[in-house]
Amino acid sequence: MTSTATPRTDPALLDSLRQDLADAPFGVDEVRERLGDLATHALGREQTLPARRAVAGARDPLGVLIGCFGLGLPTAADDLARALPRTGVTGAVALGIVEPHGAHVVATCDLRPYGDDEGRSWWVASDPTDHTRTGPLPVDHVLGIGGASSTLASWTPRTRVARALDVGTGCGVQALHLSGHADAVVATDLSRRALGYAGFNAALNQADWDLREGSFLEPVAGESFDLIVSNPPFVITPRTAGVPLYEYRDGGAAGDAVVEALTKGVGAHLAPGGVAQLLGNWETAAGQDWRERLGEWAAASGLDAWVVQRDVQDPAEYAELWSRDGGHLPGTSEHEALVGAWLDDFAARGVEQIGFGIITLHKPTTQRTPFVDLVELTGPVASPMGPTIAAGLLARDRLAGLDDDALLDTAWRCADDVTTETHAAPGATDPHVIVLRQGGGLARSIRLDTLDAALVSVSDGELTARQSLTAISALLDLPTGESLAAGAALVRRLAADGLLLPE
């Protein structure tokens, strides 16, 4: 099953639609206020009943637009005409965003407001969401704003760049973000329907993108960029007859080969100092640590690599998630067949776990050994994470160029959001557990031994790490050389994540 055509980009009609949406006003805050907290939170869980109740019988422009384009409800043509006075029903039909059904119209796309943490806002059109359908999604479905796209947007650094690339742009969510800090944006996708939506969203939001049809990096052969982002079709899908292959999530390769290939190959398109930010799934076989697999990819890339694993699922959890994602309901024979196909596929490769996370790659500007930092963090982190990623890359780049002697001869101070937490048994005079906590960023929590705790406690920017450790080793009656080596390792670890800052 395939979808219908995408909306059309008539400049005059889009000017009218843009003004009508702004006048409604059809914005993120306004929609949240109109629906209320209960319905807004329910929509975040893909439960639409509270939102439908909130706009039932609505005649005001905002309520009509939410019901028509956000919830897919049949809408009286007269009500839509009042909500879009410049565009009118005729113009909306001509743009291909609604279809007439007697005295009513039905949206042919999902259209909703979207914004970032810096006050920028857009409207994003995509195919109707699954809650407006009665069956499985078409295989050429163009996904809108989702958890993965929001995660990638949050983790992407927003420093100013000359050229940016969005690989597998879909409807253009990442390209919208890039438009705010890139002089030129190129976006690629294999799906012609996805590029149709991306072109519509670019025109509606008055953005100028170079859209190119093709697979992954093929359309940009020989070109380099300062920033590359990708929310690729990373879902691991069985290559089995009867398993639908959705364009928005399936990259056409077995296992996690799509993410592996991007990780290893993206460096050919990064300018010196350039950054690539990717989302992905990766497989871990029984008896293997995920860091082994990602470490191999990082080494093959020739780039600095900073990978944060955010979630882990077993094969059954993964199979259930992606079977439901396509609209196949648990309890049906179709759903059970799909789950079985996934379980067989993972078993054939001995897969025990599937990880999800963010891969950040950086091309050094100098000849040095690339750094590799592979961490697992499943708890809450700051939002947005982009500033943390930007600062972390700068810190890691600097640390990669410092030997231990230079590190020890630097004065360090604790960041303002760092605290210590101690735990002691009842009646004990000394703590048996000391934990260093980061209030922002990655929200790191690091257990310290006595030497570590002493060094952190005197890191106020006055003394170098060498001076502090020499004094501490004498007080604790520890060999100075061992203390300096252990202290250097701790400083390197804490400085990378911003818990220690150079003075």
What's this entry about, in short?
This protein is an alpha/beta fold. The protein is built from 18 helices and 19 strands.
Write up what this structure looks like.
This protein has helices at 11-23, 28-44, 49-55, 61-70, 77-83, 88-95, 147-155, 173-178, 192-204, 257-265, 290-301, 315-325, 333-348, 386-400, 404-408, 450-457, 465-476, 480-496, and strands spanning 75-76, 98-101, 104-107, 110-115, 121-126, 161-167, 182-189, 209-213, 225-230, 270-285, 304-313, 351-362, 372-376, 411-414, 418-423, 433-438, 445-448, 460-464, 500-502. It is α/β, with parallel strands linked by helices and 503 residues long. It has 18 helices and 19 strands. It has an 8-stranded mixed β-sheet with strand order 8-7-6-9-10-12-11-13, with helices on both faces. A 3-stranded antiparallel β-sheet has the order 1-3-2.
Largest sheet: 8 strands, mixed
Strand order of the largest sheet: 8-7-6-9-10-12-11-13
Computed CA radius of gyration, to the nearest angstrom: 26 Å
**Which structural class should the secondary elements be placed in?**
alpha/beta
Number of distinct helices: 18
The strand count comes to 19
Percentage of helical residues? Answer: 25-40%
* Principal-axes shape call: elongated
* Percent of residues in beta strands: 15-25%
Features of the shown structure:
503 residues, alpha/beta, eight-stranded mixed β-sheet, 19 strands, 24% strand, elongated
Task: Please specify the SSE layout and strand pairing.
Blueprint lengths: L10 H13 L4 H17 L4 H7 L5 H10 L4 E2 H7 L4 H8 L2 E4 L2 E4 L2 E6 L5 E6 L20 H9 L5 E7 L5 H6 L3 E8 L2 H13 L4 E5 L11 E6 L26 H9 L4 E16 L4 H12 L2 E10 L1 H11 L7 H16 L2 E12 L9 E5 L9 H15 L3 H5 L2 E4 L3 E6 L9 E6 L6 E4 L1 H8 L2 E5 H12 L3 H17 L3 E3 L1
Parallel strand pairs: 6-7, 6-9, 7-8, 9-10, 11-13
Antiparallel strand pairs: 1-3, 2-3, 4-5, 10-12, 11-12, 14-18, 14-19, 15-16, 16-17
